[in-house]
Design goal:
By secondary structure, this protein is mainly alpha-helical. The chain is about 55% helix and about 5% strand. A hairpin with a 2-residue loop joins strand 1 and strand 2. Interacts with some GDP-bound G alpha proteins. Does not interact with G-alpha proteins when they are in complex with subunits beta and gamma.
């Protein structure tokens, strides 16, 4: 095949005029595929810098079209792009298909064709950063690879086969090297994010073999300019001893790089909280936790960007092993810090404020609210000081006994409203948080939420008969106010408030009339149950709800005071 350089340059230059084009017509698919083949072949020759850049820009634009990627996803094409991106790995094997393409290129003559392929001569094909110092070229090649991975599964498999994660990890190790500009750093991280998001094997490889947590932790350290005045204590370099309000916000570039690093770390630590970690891993996660605390206390350029930055931080915090969350409380109390029981609560208070902002917004609560709410719940469960601090903010001593728990604008009111939310996950998470703040005490939980709102969680836990769940908590001081003590006997436990006395609907009725009305009600329930319109339930001795059987209904009709016996369960635990 003969390549006409002038023709290719003409097509490339014309195509670059479509730099902002992201949609493509079906009619020209074959032309775009042909152009991709021509330009990739041209990239395997010795090129002038301007021509090289034009070709790579053309490939970048072509890679946006997910229907015309076939010329770009072969081993040879991906290897060529990796070479220009400076992330080619020596010795990566090529498939038979790519070797055939290599043979075609060799038949054209010229050393450029040989140099553009991997295969046996992988080492010769590699171009290290020092040999390919044009960072604009590197950036264009990285963008093309990112587009290919985003749109094409074959490209993802080829990238894994070519071990691109190794090549990009090598450059990420140079996080403190000022040589690389922002765009190269950003697309290195974006490529790593895509590889770890789309390939489980690559995710595990980065986490374990390439020590991804340490690697990305160092990346965050360098990006944010962190210095360590003490073990697990951080501050911004050049601002040691300054109050937080005097530290300038992070630049847009710093925030962009930091968020990409946080997203990669989320991918590779996704299952960490579900497994045990050894001492070495725990130390690594505590170090990462200290960096995340620093992120949480940092401000970005603008409120919207700050919230996005904190959102990625909170998501990653949720992946850390629970015993490592103590790093949130480790910094010493300083002037301007929020202190509670001698502990620095700045990070916990920031999490609480972040959670309330998401709650007030009310948009996609499952995705936006639950990470922060889960984080606060688990922190409160394992740290006494955190629980007491959060309880003082969310469930202060109860004084208003005339307003329903779900009515009002306090954080308690907002969370109680969530306990009847249509989304089960949101409802359960809100109830769990308040239950933990009540030390899993049923009576205290009902006191602050009302039995009606609390019934869902209590039924799921088998606590409808009262008591306390299995959590271990310290004793708290008596939190009852004078107002609550005086009104306690008048409070309706279902609604959680003092209600106006209602007229008795049975007033003036004889006992016989009352019995007739009761039997009417029983017959109506029986009819609805037999027609499968409702399913009557009853409270079992284990505190959980169970179905009322037809025999139970017959007995209730004959004797309204009948108490159904518990069905025998051979698998239940010994009562003793």
């Amino acid at each position: 095949m003969f390549f006409n350089p002038n023709l290719t340059i003409f097509f490339s230059t014309s195509f670059i005029q479509m730099n902002q084009c992201f949609t493509f017509s079906k009619e020209e698919e074959q032309s775009r595929e042909r152009l991709g083949e021509l330009v990739l072949g041209f990239l395997n020759r010795e090129l002038q810098p301007s021509c090289l850049l034009a070709c790579l820009e053309t490939v970048r634009i072509l890679s946006r079209d997910k229907d015309c990627l076939s010329p770009l996803v072969s081993h040879s094409a991906m290897s060529t792009l990796a070479r220009y991106a400076g992330i080619a790995v020596p010795g990566t094997s090529l498939s038979e298909c790519s070797q055939q393409v290599e043979g075609q290129m060799d038949s054209e003559g010229g050393e450029g064709g040989e140099g553009g392929e991997g295969g046996e001569g992988g080492e010769a094909a590699e171009v290290s950063p020092s040999e390919n110092a044009d960072q604009e070229v590197i950036s264009e090649a990285l963008k093309s690879i990112c587009n290919i991975l985003l749109h094409n599964e074959t490209g993802q498999a080829v990238a894994a086969d070519l071990q691109l994660i190794r090549g990009v990890a090598e450059r990420l190790k140079q996080s403190h090297d000022p040589t690389w500009n922002h765009e190269v750093r950003f697309f290195d991280l974006r490529l790593t994010f895509l590889l770890t998001a789309l390939r489980v094997d690559t995710r595990a490889q980065l986490a374990q073999e390439l020590h991804g947590i340490r690697l990305l932790g160092n990346q965050l350290d360098a990006t944010l300019g962190i210095c360590w005045p003490d073990t697990l204590e951080t501050t911004r370099a050049g601002f040691e001893g300054c109050p937080p309000e005097e530290i300038p916000p992070l630049s847009r570039e710093q925030t962009e790089l930091a968020m990409e690093s946080l997203k990669i770390l989320f991918n590779i630590t996704f299952d960490t909280s579900k497994r045990k970690v050894d001492e070495e891993e725990a130390a690594e996660y505590r170090h990462l936790g200290a960096i995340l605390r620093h992120c949480l206390m940092s401000q970005a350029d603008g409120e919207e960007r700050t919230e996005e930055f904190h959102s990625h931080t909170v998501n990653l915090l949720g992946n850390l092993p629970l015993p490592c969350l103590d790093v949130l409380l480790m910094p010493k109390v300083q002037q301007g810090s929020i202190e509670y029981m001698g502990v620095n609560m700045d990070a916990v208070n920031m999490l609480l404020e972040f959670m309330e902002k998401r709650l007030d917004r009310g948009h996609k609560l499952k995705e936006t609210l639950l990470p922060a709410l889960n984080q606060l719940t688990e922190s409160a469960r394992i740290h006494r000081e955190t629980r007491k601090f959060l309880r003082s903010k969310v469930l202060p001593p109860l004084r208003d006994v005339m307003t329903r728990p779900e009515v009002g604008d306090t954080l308690r009111n907002k969370l109680v409203r969530l306990m009847t939310h249509i989304d089960t996950d949101v409802k359960d998470c809100a109830a769990e948080f308040l239950f933990v703040l009540c030390k899993e005490s049923v009576s205290r939980f009902i006191k602050y939420t009302g039995y009606g709102n609390a019934a869902g969680l209590l039924a799921a836990r088998g606590l409808l008969r009262g008591g306390r769940d299995s959590g271990v908590y310290s004793e708290d001081e008596d939190s009852e106010t004078e107002e609550y003590r005086e009104a306690r006997n008048q409070i309706n436990p279902i609604t959680g408030v003092v209600e106006e006395e209602q007229p008795n609907p049975m007033e003036g009725m004889t006992e016989e009339q009352k019995e007739i009305e009761a039997m009417k009600l029983v017959h109506m329930f029986d009819k609805l149950s037999r027609n499968n319109l409702i399913q009557p339930m009853q409270l079992g001795m284990d505190g959980k709800m169970r179905e009322v059987t037809p025999d139970d209904m017959v007995n209730l009709v004959k004797n309204p005071l009948f108490q159904p016996e518990e069905p025998h369960n051979s698998e239940s635990e010994d009562e003793s």
